[in-house]
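Hey, I'm writing a tutorial for new members on how sequence and structure tokens pair up, and I'd like a real worked example in the thread rather than a made-up one. If someone can provide the structure for the chain below, I'll link this post from the tutorial.
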Amino acid sequence: MSTSESGGEAAGAALLLCRARPDAVAAAAPLLGERMTLAGAGARWSVLVPEGGPWLHRGEPVDRVVAGWAAALAVGAPWPVLALWWDADRAGCALASGFHRPVGYVWLADGTPVAEDEAMRTVAVRLGLDPVLDLQSLEALTRPDPGADAHARLRGLLAVLSRAGVALPAALAPGEPAGRLGAVAGALPDARPTVAATHRSTAGERRLAPWTPWAGGPGARVLALAQVSAGLPLTAWGLRRGSGGWTTAGLLLLAHGALGAGYALTRRP
């Protein structure tokens, strides 16, 4: 069991890089139901910094949580999301793009690669990186290097992404604990808090719990796909008719269905 499941600052931290401007990300971030700090991370990139995380108080592995977040954001948006995460034992990344199943890579704390090399090739393709120079740099991160630990691997990944426009503030460095990341992010000049959609569950909602997105069961997946299927034509119809009410209803269906579908992708055995 990794330290990500034990609690405390060593339980891990994460950053979510979105290839979109902060205004676009701010509109989608409430889907995650988690308070985060949003800031710019380059001309066409933004970064979301979680203020806490389920891994800190519910014992969930940080990699699984952030992969679910990335998928939930990307499945309902026209831009990809790259999650960077780390704990005391490992570090890695998870890329989500549209309805593609998220792809990720993992390094042990000493930098030893423990994932398929093909994953980095997929990352390069989905992010539209240079198929020669950038891919060569990414593949170097999958080879043994006694001088590079897991955090150095993530810094190497960020160096490659800088050629695609990523300019992550230097203080948001891989390896920092979640508490420090949150404090640093909140002090950035363009930082803003995202809204977390939270409410108390009713008795009826508890009876429906097996069908909610976070349950990850067959019923939840079916419901999520049904919501997306219904939301798409309803949104299109509302836009054609200029009906704000129907457009909003369609977007709400799409948002909730996208959240459930994205999470289900990461829960497949």
